[in-house]
Amino acid sequence: MAATMGYPEKMKQGVEVAEEPTRIRVTLSSRNVKHVEKVCADLIHGAKDKLLKAKGPVRMPTKVLHITTRKSPCGEGTNTWDRFEMRIHKRVIDLFSTPEVVKQITSISIEPGVEVEVTVAI
After folding, report:
1. Mind listing the pLDDT tens digit for each residue in 31-84?
2. 95 with 54: CB under 8 angstroms?
3. Within a 10 A sphere around the Cβ of 55, how many other Cβ atoms?
4. CA dist 98 to 40, 103, 118, 122, Å?
5. Burial (CB count within 10 angstroms: exposed 0-12, middle 13-18, buried 19+), residue 40
6. How many whole angstroms separate alpha carbon 44 and alpha carbon 109?
């Protein structure tokens, strides 16, 4: 009795257990909203085709980076300024499956300028 107390079903020899689905977080970021939304739609569509549970896309707050600079190259003349900004849009999608299936889903064509980060939760 003591020999079988501490061993879960996975540890027994000769018994194969299928991989449990893990949470895989896909983070997409880009300067162009349309590109991010298109890649999100493609990922969700691929997950629905494979009958996976997916949460998202969750829209994270847009980062706005500002740069203010002088127009005059030499510094003389009227003090006129240029204001530039860059907006970074971010989406998060959670997929619940095995890593092999997610590799198949994320092998879609990704729009230029979209950064994809895949994180596997343990």
Report:
1. 999 999 999 999 999 899 989 899 989 999 999 999 999 999 998 889 999 999
2. yes
3. 14
4. 19, 9, 13, 12
5. buried
6. 14
